[in-house]
Amino acid sequence: MPFIPHTENDTRTMLDTIGADSIEDLFDEIPAELRAQPLSEVPAGRNEMAVSRLLQARAAQDIQALSFLGAGAYEHHIPAAVWELTTRGEFYTAYTPYQAEASQGTLQLLYEFQTMMTELTAMDVSNASLYDGASALAEAVLMAVRANRKSKSKRILIPTTVNPTYRSVVNTIVRHQGIQLELVNYDTQSGYIDPASLPTDPGDITALVIPQPNFFGALEDVDALTDWAQAHGALVIGVVNPTAMALITPPGEWGNGTGADIVCGEGQPLGAPLSSGGPYFGFMCCAQKHVRQMPGRIIGRTDDIEGKTGYVLTLQAREQHIRRSKATSNICTNQGLLTTAATIYLSLMGPEGLRQTAEHSHANTHKLAEKLCAIKGVEKIFNRPCFHETVLRLPKPANEILSALDTQGVLGGFDLSQTYPELGNAILVCATETKTDNDLEQYATALRNVLA
Amino acid sequence: MHDTHTPLIFEHSRPGRINNTHTQRSTAQTSIIPDAMLRKTPPRLPEVSEMDAVRHYTRLSQKNFSIDTHFYPLGSCTMKHNPRACNTLAMLPGFLSRHPLSPEQHGQGYLSCMWDLQEILKDVTGMTAVSLTPMAGAQGEFAGVAMIRAYHDANNDTTRSEILVPDAAHGTNPATATMCGYATKEIPTDANGDVDVDALKAVVGPQTAGIMLTNPSTLGVFDRRIKEIAGIVHKAGGLLYYDGANLNAILGKVKPGDMGFDVIHMNLHKTFSTPHGGGGPGAGPVGVSERLKPFMPIPVVGKNDNGYYWLTEKDLPQSIGRLSAFMGNAGVLLRAYIYALLLGREGMTRVADYATLNANYLMAKLSQAGFDMALPERRATHEFILTLKRQAKEQGVTAMDFAKRLLDYGFHAPTTYFPLIVPECLLIEPTESESKETLDAFVEAMAAIQKEAESDAQTLKGAPYTMPMRRLDDVKAARELDLRYKQS
Ligand SMILES: Cc1ncc(COP(=O)(O)O)c(C=O)c1O
Q1: Could you tell me the CA-to-CA distances from A104 to A348, B275, B329 in Å, in that order?
Q2: How many CA atoms, within 13 angstroms, populate the side-chain half-sphere of residue A226?
Q3: Complex ipTM, two decimals?
């Protein structure tokens, strides 16, 4: 029987031990009127060979074109060792490390992960992951409301340069707790939040969200925004791209004061394949003083009774299994395996490898934009410096051009006209380190053909 | 197991030890980022060779218990075998490299799998529709309770302020109620392990938004009065939420939809055997009855003459909204789908049969070995509870001591101290994957530990002895917080 080891003889002996005549007897406490009709939509069982054939055929339908899509999920080279190690059964098939002495592998790895994330963000502490970048931002908003005891308003300012889907997820998750999300508009010339446009007397604000880079790929004036928020008693929530941290000022160093209070983001660029959108992982770091308000698992270093160093889940009094309705979040299962991949990815990249990845992605996107803007009618919309994405305006409706490019084997980017209609025929393009000069040229050629 | 100390990866680091380059050109050429925005000092990530990293993480992996290496009867977690085909096939390049925003016509293979999975889960749960997007059980719970709120709101029924939760419930249930803006009211459990119906009647009322129930409950028994409970809550205008984290014992046997539930979440990382990865990822799809269908979280997979496509805000304007940046833990869902295909409909019912057989057998054997069951008169479902209250009193040993000593005998410990209402409890879930020999060996280990408790409780209290670590100091960890390596 698939995945069941019992022989007929075993079953018989076991039933005798129980004192039951048949397996069916074991279900005798279920009221008869509740017993289900046989399953009808679940297909008949197939063996591994048959299922492999089916899945191979389906996967083959999805082989993708040359892609310049980003918008929250990024194609990066993942060293082969990352998933070779991550899918070792001892990592892959372990549960949450509740029995610390029998889970030192996972626990030490997570302690290393936390260290790496605090290094990337220049923050004091990190948790052991949340679900994804969008839900991590929602958790960050809830955390800011708990952490900012001086603020009573529960007003959170969110720039429209934050990924629109993130804003929508935040709204889904925090709306039941009396929190007000107020949008801050961007400068349509530059594609960033102009600090000069912020009110001088904003009243009681609980937190300001600062994306870096923002959804357009542009770099925000994080120092001025941080100083403005902190001057008005608001906490700063950074939502950052982890690859970019190798290149640009990390949130722990934003502004003139103590840096951001809470930092979160999407961990996917650190070793997770695109995989239709998941599993990825959300990360969250914060300043030491806020650690007791963090959601999610946190690993701490301690000693055993003989004084040897080891690792455990700690500060569990924040969590649902202890604190129940007063917990910092309902999260229980997180994205452990993806943090395993990220930790191994960051070890293999090192500071130099990650910097190169960031720089080359930045340079490739810049190069791509130059090539495409040489085509008549194509122009860059914003003049802010970018990380590895940028916004281009096209001479015709974006969806038409993108489908035409698709027929030429190029996924040309993300259509912004639904979410940012004020930008006209605009697309968001991304060229990571995976793209060669030939790839960039192929895009330019395809676009030239399409526009001809 | 290794009992040697494993240095941190940072301690293997040497300045200038550069691993491979992962870029197309030797230099990046252009940077248009102004100096003021550039990072001044690089992050202190490890500088190690590939071999350093491979050895280090291989070594760390060897310090874990896992299903692949040990019997792992962790109650409420369904640690069953994770078939390898599920992983291999979910990692096929077409699935693995697909960008989530690439056009639907480039995802027909993937989307067809997700459509099929929705249909399978509808059948298994007896619900009208399924949304796959929640990323774990707790997020499924959030989606479910948010839908209950949306339903009441849509009926202009806005004064309901409470969610009822049994005292045996998983911690995520009350925590979820809070996130949805509800107060939690606890319902006691009666002496037989069922919800105390009289207590329920006493607290249910016009303020009741709904009830969150697990059935089989976290006590490992099937609540026989479930229909009556459903009637009471529905009559008061509340809705029923089914915490379907653990469906292993009811697959093909009972459907939550038939029990009268309005919404359910399922933990595919338990019943559908996707790996738990040392903490996650999971997948917590929700199933709904007809009346909650308009409120389902998006996106949901739809199908028309052109093929498969995503239903979004436009199609479901009353949806509670999005829960993730894309569509949840796609790769986990694929693994669950592959598992469902491998089992098929007979295989699913068989899972319930043998998970139940194993749990009842283990319960019988442990009783015969002299252990006390929390609910000895009841049938076990996929799991059951053993209580060490007597041992605590007579020998001064605890559930924790037994748990730690089991590690020395080569078994992962069962869940301890949950549910909170049974003193010194072990919640034991063997799953259908385990053979009679393994279960017998576990009983022998438990009996041997009991002997130690009687003859030498002190030794038992010092366990474990054969792990890489002796018992770890949780109090010190929380008092003297050390949450990252401080590099010099
Ligand atoms: C009964 C029960 N409910 C809810 C959950 C929460 O599920 P998750 O950990 O996937 O969030 C679990 C598992 O942890 C559980 O056992």
Answers
A1: 21, 18, 26
A2: 24
A3: 0.97
pLDDT tens digits in sequence order for chain A, 452 residues long: 899 999 999 999 999 999 999 999 999 999 999 999 999 999 999 999 999 999 999 999 997 789 999 999 999 999 999 999 999 999 999 999 999 999 999 999 999 999 999 999 999 999 999 999 999 999 999 999 999 999 999 999 999 999 999 999 999 999 999 999 999 999 999 999 999 999 999 999 999 999 999 999 999 999 999 999 999 999 999 999 999 999 999 999 999 999 999 999 999 999 999 999 999 999 999 999 999 999 999 999 999 999 999 999 999 999 999 999 999 999 999 999 999 999 999 999 999 999 999 999 999 999 999 999 999 999 999 999 999 999 999 999 999 999 999 999 999 999 999 999 999 999 999 999 999 999 999 999 999 999 99
**Which residue type sits at B30?**
T
Write the residue in B54, B64, B364 that is nearest to A105 by C-beta.
B64
Partner A contacted by B43 (CB < 8 A): yes
Which residues, including other chains, have CB under 8 Å from residue A330's CB and lie 6 or more apart? A320, B138, B141, B142, B172, B175, B176, B178, B179
Q: Containing domain of residue A392, as a range? A: 66-75+351-451
- CB distance B22–A357 less than 8 Å? yes
For A72, the closest of B92, B138, B325 (CB atoms) is B325
Query: Using CB atoms within 10 A of its CB, is residue B425 exposed (0-12), middle (13-18) or buried (19+)?
Result: buried
Please give the distance, rounded to the nearest whole angstrom, from the Cα atom of residue B14 to the centre of ligand 1. 42
The CA distance from A56 to B69, in Å, is: 30
Flag if A249 and B436 touch (Cβ within 8 Å): no
CATH classification of B348-474, choosing from 1.10.472.10, 3.90.1150.10, 3.30.420.40, 3.40.50.700? 3.90.1150.10
Which residues in chain B have Cβ-Cβ distances shorter than 8 Å to A309? 5
Give domain status of residue A183, yes or no: yes
Residue type at position B300:
V
> How many angstroms does the Cα of residue B172 sit away from the middle of ligand 1?
7
Sign of CA pseudo-dihedral A221, A222, A227, A230: positive
- Asked if A319 and A380 sit in the same domain, the reply is no
Q: Where are the alpha helices (DSSP H) in B256-414?
A: 256-259, 330-368, 389-394, 399-408
C-alpha span between A279 and A331 (Å, rounded): 16
Same domain, A212 and A361: no
* CB proximity B392 to A under 8 Å: no
Same domain, A211 and A185: yes
Which of B76, B77, B273, B276 to mutate to test ligand 1, by most ligand atoms within 8 A of the CB atom?
B76
First to last CA, chain A: 61
Q: Which residue on chain A is closest to B464 by alpha carbon?
A: A101
Interacting residues of B412 by C-beta distance below 8 A, sequence separation 6+: A99, A102, B65, B70, B71, B72, B73, B74, B79, B406
Residue pair B407/B449 in contact (Cβ under 8 Å)? The answer is: no
Chain A hits for B85, Cβ within 8 Å: 48, 51-52
Q: Are A305 and B462 an interchain contact pair (Cβ–Cβ within 8 Å)?
A: yes
Q: Are residues A396 and A312 in the same domain?
A: no
Both tokens of A184, joined, read 């801050």
Q: What is the number of H-type helices and E-type strands within chain B?
A: 15, 13
Torsions phi, psi for A324 (to 5 deg): 50, -120
What is d(CA A122, CA B309) in angstroms, rounded to the nearest whole number? 42
Residues with CB under 6 A from ligand 1: A 332-333; B 76, 136-138, 170, 172, 214, 218, 243, 245-246, 267, 282, 284
Asked if residue B388 lies in contact with residue B426, where contact means CB atoms within 8 angstroms, the answer is yes
Instruction: Say which CATH architecture domain B85-342 belongs to.
Output: 3-Layer(aba) Sandwich (3.40)
